[in-house]
Amino acid sequence: MAHSLLVMKFGGTNMQGAAAIRHSASLAARSTRGGVRVVVVVSAMAGVTNGLLRLAEAAQGGDIASANDEIAAMRTRHFTAAQDLGAAPDSAAVREIRELHETLRQAVYGVYLLRELTPRSRDLIVAFGERLSAPLMALALSGQGIQAHHLTGGQAGIMTDAHFGNARPLPGSYERTRDRLGGLLDAGITPVVAGFMGENEEGAITTLGRGGTDFSATIIGKALHADEVWAWKDVDGVMSADPRVVPDARNIERLSYGEVMELAYFGAKVLHPLAVTPLQESGIPLRVKSAADPDFPGTLVGAEPDGDAAHPVKAVTAIRGVSLINVTGAGVLGVPEVVASLFAAIARENITLLMVSQSSSMSNVSLAVQSADARRTLAALRGGMTGELKVEEQPGVAVLAIVGAGMRGQKGVAARLFSALASEDVNILMISQGSSELNISVAIDAAEVDTATRAVHAAFGLGERAGAPA
Ligand SMILES: Nc1ncnc2c1ncn2[C@@H]1O[C@H](COP(=O)(O)OP(=O)(O)O)[C@@H](O)[C@H]1O
Ligand SMILES: N[C@@H](CC(=O)OP(=O)(O)O)C(=O)O
């Protein structure tokens, strides 16, 4: 089908140096040359976001020397890329990169002086990664004869709430984005938007959560009523398992929005968990494509329910670094208010619950949370509870999930999962299946997660055939 408007997202791997950026620009150029209007959305160069987080922590801890060393190494990386992309030393792009680095250095010095890193200042610092790669992509596009103009997320109209580190777009944001980017497109200019970031109503920079550039691209796709959003990756598409863990993982040709959300939620790093949400209502498809093999169809994510009874499971995925929080004691016994107070305490702290299970006698409640949230969870529960209860953390856990719309109403899927785990002698600590029946998840010992993933992948035959049309 001929497209008239596409949003293309390039992740960290596709932006990691001049050669990768030039290749990414050529992928956008293939479409613009064919008469398609393209909005390009970019992530930070691979490793930069983690580097910025690290140096912000170092400055807060008083180690300004290592923070400055890390900034200097990044600066060299950005300048080298600009130079390799043909920017002259006195060009506007080089001047801008220099100014951005100077502002970054000052912000980090502020953190060092105050010894305080608030969620707001962390977002300001971490968003420099994307702000610095946008001018590089604009340079590469110019090198291909395309007139490009780069913008921050806020300049592109992305307005968010003030939930620093995990911000959500405000409803009014879509119209602003349409106004800001529509004008450029009408003038024949390719907008290059710094992903991962927006601005709150006060104009402070916010970020959309790790992997958030996917989300930026779909927000823009919705705003502009794009024909499709294309997320270019270093993998063939969304695969039946993480290819780093399962060597025979296969590309999945089609997934529904719901399936992708489950996969991302249960740890598949390939897309941001909320990335498809802006597209669901309008039914705009999301394509995950391989930058190394641009003619390969990749994965098409759309509205189709796509339940394939013969192949109920499409993928297996895992969340690592999980802790179980076990609440026990006679106080839980038959007292619904106690359980309510547990959830209220968790909600106040804004902690994500990965799994919940309650024994039928009601004398035990187990919660699975990211280990990074475990201390907060323990404190919230101990502070917010009534009655004589014991709250304990069990670290070193992983949550493994199988996902597929074809599981709905199918019998025997759970049995196959459990026997695959038993065959590898993997002990199951907790089990859950949501009423949507799009997934079944189990908590297991973290040390066994890779073996378990490979066994489950094999048991459902995912390496032979992953989500191909029936
Ligand atoms: N089910 C999966 N399908 C594809 N990739 C996966 C999956 N699970 C984990 N991954 C990992 O996600 C990576 C791609 O995501 P990411 O690095 O965030 O992309 P980018 O930065 O290019 O947007 C792959 O290198 C792969 O190892
Ligand atoms: N750079 C941000 C946002 C992002 O989406 O990156 P990537 O596309 O490389 O996953 C992060 O690392 O979280």
From TrEMBL:
Q: Which Gene3D superfamilies match?
A: Acetylglutamate kinase-like (3.40.1160.10), VC0802-like (3.30.2130.10)
**Record-annotated ACT domain positions:** 327-399, 402-470
Against InterPro entries, the record matches this protein to:
AceGlu_kinase-like_sf, ACT-like_dom_sf, ACT_Aspartokinase, ACT_dom, Asp/Glu/Uridylate_kinase, Asp_kin_monofn, Asp_kinase
Catalytic reaction annotation: L-aspartate + ATP = 4-phospho-L-aspartate + ADP
What EC designation does it have?
2.7.2.4
List the pathway annotation: Amino-acid biosynthesis; L-threonine biosynthesis; L-threonine from L-aspartate: step 1/5; Amino-acid biosynthesis; L-lysine biosynthesis via DAP pathway; (S)-tetrahydrodipicolinate from L-aspartate: step 1/4; Amino-acid biosynthesis; L-methionine biosynthesis via de novo pathway; L-homoserine from L-aspartate: step 1/3
Q: What class of enzyme is it?
A: transferase
Q: Keyword set for this entry?
A: Amino-acid biosynthesis, ATP-binding, Kinase, Lysine biosynthesis, Nucleotide-binding, Transferase
GO terms for MF? aspartate kinase activity
Note the superkingdom of the native organism.
Bacteria
Family that this chain belongs to: Belongs to the aspartokinase family.
Q: Which protein are we looking at?
A: Aspartokinase
Source species of the chain:
Deinococcus rhizophilus
Q: The organism's lineage?
A: Bacteria, Thermotogati, Deinococcota, Deinococci, Deinococcales
